[in-house]
Amino acid sequence: MTDSPTAAPIRTAPATDATGGAAPDPRRWWGLVIIALAQLMVVLDATIVNIALPSAQKALGMTDGNRQWVITAYTLAFGGLLLLGGRIADLVGRKRTFLIGLIGFAVASAIGGASQSPGMLFGARALQGVFGAVLAPSALSLMTTTFTDPRERGKAFGIYGAIAGAGGAIGLLLGGVLTSYANWRWCLYVNIPIAIVAVIGAAVLLRDRPGHSDVTLDVPGVILGCGGLVAVVYGFSEAEPRGWSDGLVLSLLAGGVVLLAAFVLWQTKATSPLLPLRILADRNRAGCFLTMGLATIGMFGLFLFMTYYLQDILGYSPVRSGLAFLPMSASIIIGSTQISARLLPRTSPRLLMVPGMLLAAAGLVVLTRLGVDSAYVTHVLPAEILLGLGMGLTFMPVFSTATHGIRPQDAGVASAMVNTSQQVGGSLGTALLNTIAASATTTYVGSHLTDPSRRTQVLRAGIVHGYTQAIWWGVAAMLIAAVVSAVLIVARPARGGAPMAASAH
């Protein structure tokens, strides 16, 4: 059974918790600021460069075929190495890997900002992904082992969930501002001051027990698991430009599935597995991982299509486009910190996650009514508010439940699985929805372009039609996530507030 933290006041002698019974750190809330800064930096980097990509492409002379590697190099390294990063955090200590991740991420960002060729930028982005894969799991596992008091845990994970959900939209705004008023290079340089502050703060404020000597690195597991994840993420990313029937795409996806199947088989035999299957055997954690992956598919659909809709169809500038996403960020923050964090101590996680996914699905349904002349206030804004509230309701209990009661020696890899679910869901969502949209647009234009003089109007209408058709698939992903949450999540609120699992590891 998972451990159930006590609800005793902080001033009394603490009960045994996930950190092994250490007293709560009096500086833990300042530590949360540092952890939040690091998480924001990682999440920002998934979207901030998107806005800067056209400028970077022109400055460095990238071809249209190669420009995707600015995004793909990061997602491949990040998504493929998360499990390894989580296990390293368990092996050598979370604070140490947190600091290594921060410093490495800052150095990679500096190299990327100073890039003089496409290859240099691609390499720097891959390096960012490598250190991001170390940083993200150690940040979340530090949260898990720092905040064990039920009510404090709710507040802390509310803030963390808000950042995880809103960071992508904030990245679009910040990318627009930096690209318009400074230079595309600052979309990478901006990580350096954030990392410096976080490194100093982490060194002073964060504390963690040494790494677990009983944890060893599972080398065959690293090769099979990370290789499989890289193949799957790469296959999804190549499906967008090449099509799902392309030989390379099919080979990557099939190879990835085979490697992951071999990985699971090996994990049943390894003495110190990279991913202990007891983590996946817990139905609450498995439900959280699935919910996160499915939710991210739909969420990335909104980011992807709304960025182009606002700029190419409504004619917004990059800065105005970024500002247009702020209501969604605000809704995520409200849903996570003001609703989820307050209700989770007294409510089963699924009673937040199921309505959250239904709200998010409703927001995407609003977007399926978009037309070429739709107004932001009547169509986009209501969708953002609904989706944001839904994600805020969902992300916080997902992070909290997926990492609650985990064994200290597994905290890093469990945290990595949450991030992996998010990353794989985002990669799949981007590739799947983009392919569906492109196909729907081609079909629409082919059947409606009867008068060559109306080509521009028909093409614009076809693009929007493609977006709306693809968004229906995002709706489906959200609804499936609601069902998964309802069926698999059986954790209930413990006395005092933290979710208490009803199944064993």
Q: What would your notes on this structure say?
A:
The protein has 505 residues and is an all-alpha fold. The protein folds into two domains: 28-217 and 274-500, MFS general substrate transporter like domains (Growth Hormone, Chain: A, Up-down Bundle); 218-273. It has helices at residues 28-45, 48-60, 69-92, 94-113, 118-146, 150-181, 186-189, 191-205, 219-242, 247-267, 277-281, 283-313, 318-324, 326-343, 350-367, 376-403, 411-448, 455-488, and strands at residues 492-493, 499-500. The radius of gyration is 22 Å and the shape is globular. The relative contact order is 0.15. The model is unreliable at 1-21 and 501-505 (pLDDT under 50).
What's the layout of helices and strands?
Blueprint: H1 28-45, H2 48-60, H3 69-92, H4 94-113, H5 118-146, H6 150-181, H7 186-189, H8 191-205, H9 219-242, H10 247-267, H11 277-281, H12 283-313, H13 318-324, H14 326-343, H15 350-367, H16 376-403, H17 411-448, H18 455-488, E1 492-493, E2 499-500
Antiparallel strand pairs: 1-2
Membrane topology: Multi-pass membrane protein
Keywords: Antibiotic resistance, Cell membrane, Membrane, Transmembrane, Transmembrane helix, Transport
Protein name: MFS transporter
